[in-house]
Structures
1.
Amino acid sequence: MDASTVLLYLFTILAAGGGVAVVMQRDAVHSAVALLFTMLNLAAVYALMQAHLIAALQVVIYGGAIVILIVYIIMLLDVRSEDAVRWFRTGWLVALPMVLLFALLFGRAILPVSARASTESLLTGDIPCVGGAKCEQVCDDGVDTDGDGLTDCKDPDCGRHMACYGTVESVGGHLLGPFVLPFEVSSILLLAGIVGSILLTARQEGER
Amino acid sequence: MDAPFVVVAILNLAFVLGFLINMGGMLTWVERKQGAVMANRIGANRAYIPIPLPAKGGGIRWYKRFTMIGLFHALTDGLKMLAKEDYTPPFVDKFVYNIAPWFAVVPALVTFAVIPFGGPFQPGIMMSDVLGVVGLNSAADVIHGFFGDTTYQLQLANLNVGLLFIFAAGSTGIFATALAGWASNNKFSTMGALRGASQMISYEVFMGMSILGLLVVYGTVDMNLIAQMQGDVHFGFIPSWGVVYQPVMFFVFLTALMAENKRVPFDMPEAESELVAGYFTEYSAMKMGLFMMAEFIEIAVISGIMVSLFLGAYHIPGVHAVTDSWYWAQHPELTAANTFWGAEVPHAVVIIGRVLSFLIKVVLFCWLQILTRWTLPKFRYDQVMRLGWKVLLPISLVNLVITAAVVLALN
């Protein structure tokens, strides 16, 4: 086991520990701090898996934006810790089977994928083109090999190349290339969420 | 990882940490001295180190004028913070109260990791240049043999996500304000924390928006590459610095960064005239010192970010190092060399000049920020919010659209 594998396991365990701490804390803000701890450890896991962009976005969005809003709302609502404690005395009876069921389903979904991923490693040399079609063959020469206007890492063909995997260019090329439709649909969904929440909370005409 | 790489990394780390900590200390003095000079006072000039001198009639006379124009105030300030009673009020949430200051200091320190302060360089050639002048030719050969002709970066971490790392570190800094205010269990602190969190979240939004135009121009978020791209000269005299491409965003981004740092005129979370000291009212001794240190270190960090994005990073117009791979790729008709407006100069001169140029630009920016702090009156809370959402955000959106259209048209 090399150093990065040891670190990977360490951060995974810390992230899981943070997750347990989120539900075990009596105080809501302590839970939020534990959640932040989990998010930062997950970012470290992503970084160790060469997904640097995802790691940075994990800290910006989940760590910076979402957890800080949770803390903000806890401060505004002045949540009392006693309510939660009362729930804890019986709540675990419901929670434990749910956790086990979720772990089972999630494991069933994830394990085949991760087993496949562990056998596929990153490419280093030239990219083999599928079925004789033209593709970006050399991913680190600064030349647009297949003439589709996308150079090196910006071309989705290079997604699994050592020099490109997880970089901003590669993820961006995928998002605005093959996955542009889901990407735009999710942005419209988010916009609908914003408009909906404004509509729900806005005062009506004549209402005080 | 080979030995020369580790040596360069350790030297980079030592430079960055030494620079930031010293700037943090120095700026506490600069803040007071510059404020005093601007208000036509004499300012911080009393702290001295007593020097024993022989007195006329025998014995010892203490010379008490060794004040170094007040520079020792920074030192005495640190000693005072360390020596004071570290009082933890009984009503605070101990755990959150104790970790909150670290959320202020750590992001301020790590942000500088991705800022290139001297660009790519060849330590072997540079050191043998320097030692050759002094006459230590044998030592020069040893060092040249150790480093070889390999190129290293004068930057702590050459990350592909560069700029996003700065945003990531900056966004965790908000926790210091929010958690400190909540843990203090005090109405003033909670008020300050609520103001701080909403102000920083808002300004984070259009801080990102305002920089998008520059990213469209450069086409990368890699800080090292952004710095290299500012090394060219247009029409023979206009440096290709970020401020030339995005003059409006230069001011918007600077405003956003200063609002993130919560200093006057954006010091709503502290607001000593309304909230005592805002979110750190209940902190004392070095815990309060950490908040203060983070604030001053952040002045230097903000300067570093602004300089590397908008003011040509370490570049001096017309000066090129042999290691500027981007510049020589842009100009295939030229052969790579260390040049000063066409004349060849030693590698060491270019690199040392670049580090000095970076430091001078950073210091000038620190001066500008303190100048702003002592010039502008404090905003009201609703004015801060209105400036952000109704003025700066629309400006940056319009700028982004125009920039994208221009870049698309030119391509």
Note: The first helix of chain A runs from residue 3 to 24.
2.
Amino acid sequence: MFRKPLDLGLVVLIPVLFALAPLAYNNQLLLFNAMVFLALAQGINIIYGFTGYLPFGYVGFFGAGAYGASLTVMFLHLPAPVAVLLGGLTALALGLVLSPLLRLSGVYFAIASLAASEAVYYVIANPGLVNITKGPYGVSLDRVYSPEFSYLVMAVIVGLVTAVVVYLKRSHLGLSLKAVRDDPLSSETAGIDVKRQRMLAWSWSALFAGLTGAVFAWQISVFYPGTVFDPSISIFAIVFTLFGGAGTVLGPILGTVVLYGVYNLIGITEPQYFQLIYGVLIMVLVLFLPEGIVSLLKRGGANVL
Amino acid sequence: MNLPGAQKGWSPDMLEFSLIAGILFGLFFALVGMGLNLVFGVMRIVNLAHGDFMMLGAFGAFWAYNLLGWNPLVTIPVQGLAFVLAGMALYYLLVPRLVALKDFEMISLVLFFGLSQTIEALAVLAFGNNPRSIFQPVFGQAPVHFLGRTFPVAWPVSAAVSLFFLILVYFYLYRTRAGYATRAVMASRDEASASGVNVDRISALTFGLGLLLASVAGMLSLFMLGSVSPDFGGNITITAFAVIVFGGLGDPVGTVLGGLLYGIGLMVMESYLSSWANILPYVLLLATLLVKPGGIMGKEVRHV
């Protein structure tokens, strides 16, 4: 699976760096959120970079994971790591329910997935379901609150999602997914099971968003439906991925580090300036640099993973 | 969605109220979808910034009313002309570049998404983050009595303005030379071009027209939806997309039908199941795309 030392290096190095980072830098929540966006950006990368399907409603899986985990803690009183796993499975189940969306072509899929995430949000936030989901009033997980443990679990998830992307990049599966993306008809003729492979990428992508959402819920422990279904979460993850370069391992990492860094410099105090920067950035990118900033490295002759 | 005046609770003649209000709102939603559908029809581009152009139209009317004292009905033609010109400029700036690219539909979706974010950010910088509304009685004080029901006067006025523009679009498409060419481009870009239609000019004009309709619909949103804030665009774009998919993509007549059915459905839900009404556009969109992608008119306009 890991044919080059760099592969294993990335998969191990990134989570270890994040795990050690709080010793050098004391804003742990910022580091945690950086990991959240890194995992989400790689999750988008799995589905968009390898199949060409862009899920505008990716946050739906994140929210489903957060609520799956929270309800597990509140009603089943299970320990937090188990709840995280069940949160991931909740998102995976949602992904299976929404799999007919993969029948739609790219543009329709993108908008339909956004509609699906909004629909899930309005169901969970509905006052009629207050006995189950607490409706718009939000949930509290103070019983299992543990910022240190959840931080480390998030680092592990970042390692896992990186491993999956490295695997896709190196394996026959990733190669055939890209063939499907570029020319579905010829790939099908060449004996690739197009539907099954798209389904696989979709499931991995949903699972990781769910796990990330679940750990996010655990970390912040008190949140509202609007917090975990905020459409700007999808937007950030998509922009980070596109900026860095989809379909590569390094792209989403670079994109998240650079843009989330910029966000923390100006985005928190002046969110509209950050929104302006990335809005213009997206337009410039798709017209002039559709492969993201890693393509600059490629042009420079580097062999980019 | 915050609908002023919608009544809550059960009552036998509420259905009648919902139906009439639904038709008034339906005409408005048909107008909301029409601009998006015309742009889609000629260019096969989903203008994700449609709702943001509506927002700009609403803010234009708001400032014209507050700074210059203009009645929103007076603002329409002045502002409309500006939107047509802006739309044509935007078309020539962006689209010819886009069409040359590989995977043009997906890239244009992302591009217009970027445009939407840019407009929203600029609007916050220019106007601040507050929702704006225009004093409702600008169209007259008295509520309207109709079939024993009472409506805010802004509803029938907005519906009438919507109807006027829908009829205008119909005459443009079916009774003028440019409209004839527009429908040819909608049917097939290549064949229209081969028949001597100036596809770029027609598309630019249609893009301008789409933005004009968005500006009018945005102005009416101030009355039909209560208020408009800079982040108004995202959800209304999805609603507009739901309406046009439901009516049939690229089919202007279907959009009117889709808008009316959507308006009636929304008002019925507001009356009887109000807490679930805001889920309607999303479920409608998903159901149509998955079950009947050609829309209710059933014509397979496009294989999805």
Note: The longest strand of chain B covers residues 144-146.
3.
Amino acid sequence: MNNLVERRHWLQRMGLGFGSLAASYLMQRDELRAETATAAGIPTGGVINPTHHAPKAKRVIYLFQAGGPSQLETWDYKPLLNERQGEPLPDSVRNGQRLTGMSGNQAILPLAGSMFKFEQQGKAGTWVSELQPHLAKQVDRLAVIKSMYTEAINHDPAITMLQTGNQISGRPSIGSWLHYGLGSDSDNLPAFVVLITKGKGGQPLYSRLWGSGFLPARYQGVQFRSGKEPVLYLDNPPGISRESRRSMLDRLKQLHELEQSRLADPELATRIGQYEMAYQMQASVPRSG
Amino acid sequence: MPYQPAGLWEESGTGKTYHQSKGEGLYRRSLYTFWRRTAPPPSMLTFDATSRESCAARREVTTTPLQALVFLNDPQYVEASRVLAEKLLTTHVEEPSARWDELFRRLISRQPTDNERTVINELYEEQLAYFQTEGIHVDEFLQVGERPVGEGVDRADLAATAVVVQTVIAYDETVMLR
């Protein structure tokens, strides 16, 4: 088995020639650069370094309303749907598309318009439904994008598509890509943080939605939870004080430095840095009591 | 069904509640750990287990701060350290340095070097002083995990030895093949 893998590997290298060697070298170099930066305590750049444009945004807050009201009830004004309420869905629209398990057994597929009134708001005249009276007052400060869609007919692949760019799971989520591409300027908080609403029932949320796919696990979203331990395993075990933990980590660092003097492996510097970041995180992650 | 922070399954909307095993079932090899894809065992995800949703040709090897938190704070590791510490302690009652020989042999398959021995001894002395002056911390720390502490064991010594074991478990050479 081992031989088979090696031979395949060898053939692949020969087949792709120097291109693949160069690519793997570049990838390693970038990894290395990111790792070394962390270890040295300098703000980590991502693989896009420097950025193509001068960045203006400092952070991205992405609210994903799984199970929220549909676009037809909030932003996407469709008067024709209301006009033709109850008429069967024209074939020119359905175009032979599959039906979901929920609608597959219906005798007819009627058009259904919004139950809520729309009005144009703000200087830009953006259509907003009556469900959002407060947002309507701020509407000139918002950019509304209505051109995004998925071809999925069910929730789960559609959500996976929106978070990862593909209906089929296995690709990195948008936050993982941002972390990978842009890095982070914080050395005591995770770059990509996920909060989920607790105990509302409805659609399950899979951890792949903030997963790192084929990127290394350090790019996966760190889930913050409500309650007194917002990050899993954040708190020291009972009976271990912060000073006791400090002394332990200092000794562990000495062990690692001894190992480093034998090995000179840059990965080792990363591990030392990550233990230190864990200790910093314990102090800097906000707690809600 | 090993240790897992409470509430994870509910938060993910699985509609199910996680029931941690009692007794033997708690200590089964992680090969047999029950896997719910909506909310996989969190410590395994932290250590680059695949999500089991698509084929993985090669496993990732990463180093993250969250891994450090699991080694140092996950009850599974804290308890394992304590139980191993008790073994070391009862086998080598009088001679702490013989404990470290056995600890290194069990976890890294070699003897500690002189330098490592010095570091470990200093750590042990610091932790022993900490636990001897703060008796309440001993009891709190030894309560982590369901396996009871044996009778007639020097509890402060056990707690200090357990911290040393934790440190060696978190040591790079224990967890990584370089």
Note: The mean pLDDT of chain A is 80.
